[in-house]
Amino acid sequence: MTSGSRSAGLAGMVVGETRISTVGQEGHGLTYRGYSIEDLSSKSTFEEVAYLLIHDQLPNASQLADYRAQLVSMRALPPALKIVLEQIPSDAHPMDVLRTGCSALGTIEPEGGERSQEWVADRLTSSFASMLLYWYHFSRTARRIDETAGGDTIAEHFLTLLNGEAPSDLARRALDSSLILYAEHEFNASTFTARVVTSTLADQHSAIVAGIGALRGPLHGGANEAAMELQSSFSTEDEAETAVMGMLERRELIMGFGHRVYRDFDPRSAVIQEWARQLSEDRESMLLYDVAVRIDRVMKREKNLFTNLDFYSAVAYHHMGIPTEMFTPVFVIARTCGWSAHVFEQRADNRLIRPAGEYTGPMEREYVPIEQR
Ligand code: COA
Question: Which domains are delineated in the chain?
Fold first, then answer.
């Protein structure tokens, strides 16, 4: 199949029904189970959204308190998983650490019996930060951190384990909002991958491992890391403009721009841009943000292309002290509840996903015995 063929990349094709989210539908924008992303990112918390996606409704106050407590209680890693994590070299990519950690946990605590699909979803959502930061500190300093420390939210847990101290209120709120923005996005590449794996009746860990693999590439989740590499390579806004003009002339992709579904703007981008601005001001370090804004303007002017969620997330994460190679793993922590909701939905009305390919190779070739070739 060539990239010009009508089904290349399945662009524009409806490949299934979902009740979980709308992406870019006229008049609806981005909604999770009918709630707008604008409301959720400004009024709710990540745990509320995770509960909404996993359990299909917003929690009331006591359900939320119980859910938070349950997630906190699921942070501890089994000793056997720690031994696996301790074997992974310090220069491994953190996405590979999460992929390995998820797979290993699936052998230690396989789904089934008392471990329901909802239990697995919550366990992974709660323990991905534990896995990542246990490995991070151990591989660098041989220190075995207490992976259960750090407040009662996913955002505080992650930032506390990363930096060894409680985060500022601004950093905590910004990360929480960013986790909401990254939590779910309909039939994107990694979610579709997870649904394909689920459609074979495989277990949930396999579906999430496959989702992590699909998310890793720079055309999908890896774009936030690639955006940071670009933004941080300039010392002035003018330098950034000249370099981006050169890249466009050479028809190079600028990571963090464009989208398969959105045509005019990504509704998540304005929310994260505002957090990026506030964090930059708080740090009294505006260069990265100013460079990003200039690149944004150049792309609008030259290509009429808009920033997607990944572009300003890079600036925001940088100012939260998150190392660049952990940007996509943060996306995993957020997206696990969205992937899981799709696993459940696929299972509830399953049919094996097995499309057909259009054959374009040679036909009717005569077989030549090996000794005559
Ligand atoms: N930088 C430069 N040009 C871009 C671009 C980008 N980030 N995104 C799209 N374009 C250009 C394409 O080259 C194409 O130009 P052409 O018509 O002259 O060939 C045109 O815009 C249309 O793009 P198209 O290839 O049809 O988009 P797509 O739907 O296949 O791809 C993405 C969507 C997201 C893969 C694509 O925009 C991209 O690669 N973006 C960068 C990676 C990224 O940020 N990914 C995260 C997505 S949330």
Answer: 21-218+334-348 (1.10.580.10), 223-319 (1.10.230.10)
